[in-house]
Amino acid sequence: MDSLVFEDVAVNFTWEEWVSLDSSQKKLYRDVMLENFRNIVSKQNGNIMALKVSPETRGVN
User: Where is the KRAB domain (predicted)?
Assistant: First the structure.
């Protein structure tokens, strides 16, 4: 099985999309992203250092 990276479960918004969300939508986004993060960490047996982050997330081109 391939390694799971955060981008596999992440939902990304443009700035224009983000500012158009109301506070309840932003809270839902936060809650979903936290749940995704917890699920990934649990798949890594709690080893957060094993979580792979792509170069795009780090801002590396």
Answer: 4-61
